[in-house]
Design brief:
By secondary structure, this protein is an alpha/beta fold. The chain contains eleven helices and 14 strands. This is Multidrug ABC transporter ATP-binding protein.
């Protein structure tokens, strides 16, 4: 595959990006990452992991200490004007023009990027974000959730091909969160590449095509979400006992089996991908030892469990 065909498949290409601030704090350490055109990519990481720094470098807001970033094949430092028009950024903080109306603020954002006036597009964006009824309201009168919608509208005003959402649903209600997820999926269907950073792991689980995990400035994993869930996901069988037990009977102390809930529940962890899960063998042994149970059900590892174990295990 030649370089040009590689570039057409990547919306963003990051090579060896590092950032060390004046005080000596190293926010990013040699990050390599390709983000595919038209995907939803979720960047997960604890506070201070480097998520916002990485997004700020891609958007041209922060200058890296080393490495390079290209957006649609254009270098973000050399071709700043070109790359900036391709990117929409929804920042974490709710900084908006308090005294402006929603309509005026969003239309102004479009003009900032040198785009010709297009009221039909602004109307479409406001309707998609349930802001149309509020178009003449001053931003200062809106709720926090509505202000966040205005930030998204402003980021979409100039019709970017790449949208960055930095913690888009921090502090908003569940209903608004689901509205946003729906809107983001709709954007992807129109070909927009969406990169989101989030604390809410269910957000990544619900929406992302691929997941990257960053901690202490290092990208420790990039994986298709479904593959990640299959590869690292374990299943657990929870067996509620009729009569609590003090300890596991001899012969039952197999690996993967533990006693929980003050002896009232047996938890058996197994690999869901394995042909022989060992469940049948376990249930047979319980019957042989006269251990009665009143309920059993399986639990799957969530993306959150995987994330916590990855971050804990990072060097």
């Amino acid at each position: 595959m030649n370089d040009s065909s590689h570039l057409t498949q990547q919306a963003v290409s990051i090579r060896g990006i590092s950032k060390t601030y004046k005080g000596g704090f190293q926010a990013l350490k040699a990050v390599d990452l390709d983000i595919r055109r038209g995907e939803i990519f979720a960047l997960l990481g604890p506070n201070g992991a480097g998520k916002t720094t990485l997004i700020s470098i891609i958007c041209g807001i922060v200058t890296p200490s080393g490495g390079s970033v290209t957006v649609d094949g254009h270098d973000v430092l050399r071709d700043y004007r070109v790359t900036r028009t391709k990117i929409g950024l929804v920042p974490q903080e709710l900084s908006t023009d308090a005294f402006e109306t929603v309509w005026a603020s969003v239309r102004f954002s479009r003009g900032l990027f040198g785009r010709e006036r297009n009221d039909a597009h602004i109307e479409k964006v406001l309707r998609a974000l349930s802001l149309w009824e509020k178009k003449d309201a001053k931003i200062m009168t809106l709720s926090g959730g509505m202000k966040r919608r205005v930030l998204i509208a402003k980021a979409l005003a100039h019709e970017p091909s790449i949208l960055f959402l930095d913690e888009p649903t921090a502090g908003v209600d569940v209903e608004l969160r689901h509205d946003m997820w729906q809107m983001v999926r709709g954007l992807r269907e129109t070909g927009v590449t969406v990169i989101l950073t989030t604390h809410y792991i269910e957000e990544a689980e619900e929406m992302a095509d691929r997941v990257g995990v960053i901690t202490r400035g290092e990208l420790i994993l990039v994986e298709e979400k479904d593959v990640l869930m299959r590869k690292l996901g374990k299943k657990q069988l929870s067996i509620t006992l009729q009569t609590p037990m003090q300890a596991l009977p001899a012969g039952l102390d197999a690996s993967g089996l533990e006693l929980a809930d003050d002896g009232a529940t047996l938890i058996y962890t197994f690999d869901a991908q394995s042909e022989d899960t060992g469940i049948a063998d376990l249930l047979r042994k319980l019957a042989e030892r006269g251990v009665d149970f009143k309920d059993l059900h399986t639990l799957e590892t969530s993306l959150e469990d995987i994330f916590v174990s990855l971050v804990r295990g990072a060097p």
